[in-house]
Design brief:
Order of helices and strands: HHHHHHHHHHHH
Largest sheet: none
Radius of gyration: 19 Å
Shape: globular
Oligomer: single chain
Structural class: mainly alpha
Number of helices: 12
Number of strands: 0
Distance between the termini: 14 Å
Helix content: over 70%
Amino acid sequence: MTTPSGTAPRRTAPWVPAPAYFGISAIFHYLGPAVAVLLFARVDVLGVVWLRIASAAVVFAVWRRPWRLVRRLKPEQRRVLLGLGVVLAAMNATFYLAIARLPLATVGAIEFLGTIVLAAIGVRSGHNVIALVLAVGGVVALTDIQLAGEPFGFVFAFVNCALFMLYVVLGHRIANTGAGLSGIDQLGAAMLIAAVVATPFCIGAAAPAFTSPAALLAGASVGICSSVIPYVTDQLAMARLRRDTFALMLSILPAVATLIGIVVLTQVPTIQELTGIALIAGGVSVHQEPRESKEN
């Protein structure tokens, strides 16, 4: 039986804490774009989008063979997968078009605005109001958004924000479909749909990579780091967390980006950045799931 969005999800692999899945997703969420930005110098932005989606689709096709699901899905479930596939294609395209014009931190902060809405929808207690305020304050402190740069960059960033909200809603739905249907298999089917949707618009821009093994390898790395590992671990986390809880935990992403900067790029954070990390950690620790979610 399908679990209504926002209600208690079914439990999977209880010996693995849901935050562990989310932590893996958060780390790879930034490794992928880092490689993608380097690729922009050799391949057009939409070409990198196609390489990301297509390579992820190949991985899911070989690993999960998601087309076997078709006969088992109800018409409504097929519509959800179709919608998720279109969202994945459009979301990846607008995200890359945005980061090609604006700093990654700014795009990430705008993207987080949508998750704030999803988290706010599920707020039912004083603890969760405090958690949301702390998380938002932490993101603002970390990113220090300044509305400067190319106007089209902000257009793409805000469109990506709306699409990311849809990804969380639809992703949470397939993660909790039940009836023996794997959320990862459904994700794989949606990724194949995303590849079909993106190909007419993006494959031409990817043509320069076809003659460069290094570019193809980099594109495959982007796909695995950005669309396989994080999306799979998102499914594992979504199957354990309420939608609003998952949305709030997304506020950790800017903090993870800062920590990766310290470890990988030796970028020492400022006092303001450290304050932002502390606020976000505090928000996530204060947040509480409703009692009924813990009983199911």
